[in-house]
C-alpha cells in the first residue's frame, strides 16, 4: 500500500504597522472560495477571523471543523490550517493579526510564556466559536473591526482595550478546556491526543525553533540548538526548515532581527549601533549588510524614509490559492 501523501505546509508572513501593531484585512477582497487547497499554511502572528457570510470547513490539526456566518476563529501563530467554503459559495471574512507579547507586554501581568495557548494542547474545535454560544467574543471582535475601519478619534485606544478584552476571553475559553479534570482524566486526554497525532499529520515539526527565534532573536542562536529543540539531526533540520520556510534558519533569524530593528528605528531615538546590538547582531558591518540586502537601503536611510510597516524580504501572503 503506498504511503499517504503528506500535505505541503507553507509559511505566510505578515508585517504589522509600526505605529499600531494590529493588522486588519477586511472588505470584498477577503472572500474564501469553495476550492480546497492542497496546502496547509501558518502565520507569524496570531490570527482572529470573523466569518460574515456563508459557511464551509476549516482544517486544523488534521480535523475538519465546520464554520458558518457569525463564527469567530482563533488561531495561534505557527498552527497549520486551511479554509474553504461550501460548494458554490464564497464566504466573506475579516481578519485581525497581532502579537500578544508585543501588544500587551506592558498591560498584562501574565508571564509571556503563558500568553498563547500550547499548540500541542489546543483543541481544533475550540478554534471556531459561534456567536450564539459566545456572544461576547463576537461582539468584541466585530467592535474591533469597526473601530479600526472608522478611525474616529481615539480609535486606537478603543481598539486596544477591546482587543485585550477579547484576547483574555479567548484565553479563558482555552484554559477552561482542561480545568476541573482529574489527573487521571488529563492523562487519558493526553494519551488520546498522542494516538491522534500518530494517526494523522503531526504538528508543525519546526514550530519549537520558530517559537525560540521569535522569543530569543536577540541572543546568540546556533543551528544545532534549534535542531535539538525540534528533536531532529542538524542535517534533517536544515532540510526540513528550508522545505517549509523557503529559506535557511540563519536567513530567517536575520530577517527576524532586521524586522525588529525596523520597529526600533522608527519608534526610538537609539543609535543604529545600539539597535544592531539590541536585535542580536555582533557587528555593525554585518547588520548594515544584512539590512541593506533585505530592505534595499541602509538603516539610516530607512529610518528617515516614510515607512509605515517593517516590510522585510519574508514572503507576502496578500495573494494565494483559495482567495477569490
TrEMBL record:
<dbReference type="InterPro" id="IPR037923">
    <property type="entry name" value="HTH-like"/>
</dbReference>
<keyword id="KW-0805">Transcription regulation</keyword>
<dbReference type="GO" id="GO:0043565">
    <property type="term" value="F:sequence-specific DNA binding"/>
</dbReference>
<dbReference type="InterPro" id="IPR003313">
    <property type="entry name" value="AraC-bd"/>
</dbReference>
<feature type="domain" description="HTH araC/xylS-type">
    <location>
        <begin position="207"/>
        <end position="305"/>
    </location>
</feature>
<protein>
    <submittedName>
        <fullName>AraC-type DNA-binding protein</fullName>
    </submittedName>
</protein>
<keyword id="KW-0238">DNA-binding</keyword>
<dbReference type="Pfam" id="PF02311">
    <property type="entry name" value="AraC_binding"/>
</dbReference>
<dbReference type="InterPro" id="IPR018062">
    <property type="entry name" value="HTH_AraC-typ_CS"/>
</dbReference>
<dbReference type="InterPro" id="IPR018060">
    <property type="entry name" value="HTH_AraC"/>
</dbReference>
<dbReference type="GO" id="GO:0003700">
    <property type="term" value="F:DNA-binding transcription factor activity"/>
</dbReference>
<dbReference type="InterPro" id="IPR009057">
    <property type="entry name" value="Homeodomain-like_sf"/>
</dbReference>
<dbReference type="Pfam" id="PF12833">
    <property type="entry name" value="HTH_18"/>
</dbReference>
<dbReference type="InterPro" id="IPR014710">
    <property type="entry name" value="RmlC-like_jellyroll"/>
</dbReference>
<keyword id="KW-0804">Transcription</keyword>
Amino acid at each position: 500500500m503506498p504511503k499517504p501523501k503528506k500535505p505541503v505546509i507553507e509559511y505566510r508572513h505578515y508585517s504589522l504597522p509600526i505605529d499600531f501593531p494590529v493588522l486588519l484585512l477586511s472588505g470584498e477582497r477577503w472572500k474564501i472560495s469553495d476550492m480546497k487547497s492542497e496546502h496547509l499554511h501558518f502565520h507569524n502572528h496570531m490570527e482572529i477571523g470573523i466569518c460574515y457570510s456563508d459557511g464551509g470547513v476549516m482544517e486544523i490539526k488534521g480535523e475538519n471543523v465546520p464554520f458558518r456566518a457569525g463564527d469567530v476563529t482563533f488561531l495561534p501563530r505557527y498552527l497549520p490550517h486551511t479554509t474553504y467554503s461550501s460548494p458554490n459559495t464564497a464566504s466573506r471574512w475579516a481578519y485581525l493579526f497581532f502579537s500578544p507579547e508585543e501588544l500587551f507586554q506592558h498591560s498584562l501581568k501574565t508571564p509571556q510564556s503563558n500568553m498563547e495557548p500550547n499548540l500541542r494542547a489546543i483543541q481544533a474545535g475550540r478554534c471556531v466559536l459561534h456567536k450564539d454560544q459566545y456572544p461576547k467574543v463576537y461582539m468584541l471582535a466585530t467592535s474591533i473591526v469597526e473601530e479600526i475601519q472608522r478611525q474616529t478619534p481615539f480609535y486606537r485606544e478603543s481598539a486596544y482595550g477591546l482587543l485585550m478584552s477579547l484576547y483574555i476571553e479567548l484565553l479563558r475559553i482555552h484554559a477552561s478546556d482542561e480545568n476541573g479534570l482529574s489527573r487521571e482524566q488529563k492523562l487519558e486526554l493526553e494519551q488520546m491526543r498522542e494516538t491522534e497525532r500518530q494517526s494523522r499529520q503531526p504538528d508543525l515539526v519546526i514550530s519549537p525553533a520558530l517559537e525560540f527565534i521569535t522569543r530569543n532573536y536577540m541572543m546568540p542562536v546556533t543551528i544545532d540548538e534549534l535542531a535539538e529543540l525540534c528533536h531532529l539531526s542538524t542535517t534533517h533540520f536544515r532540510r526540513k526548515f528550508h522545505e517549509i520556510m523557503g529559506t535557511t534558519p540563519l536567513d530567517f533569524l536575520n530577517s527576524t532581527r532586521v524586522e525588529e530593528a525596523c520597529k526600533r528605528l522608527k519608534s526610538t531615538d537609539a543609535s543604529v549601533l545600539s539597535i544592531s546590538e539590541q536585535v542580536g547582531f555582533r557587528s555593525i558591518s554585518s547588520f548594515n549588510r544584512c539590512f541593506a540586502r533585505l530592505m534595499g537601503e541602509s538603516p539610516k536611510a530607512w529610518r528617515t524614509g516614510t515607512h509605515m510597516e517593517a516590510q522585510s524580504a519574508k514572503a507576502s501572503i496578500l495573494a494565494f490559492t483559495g482567495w477569490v
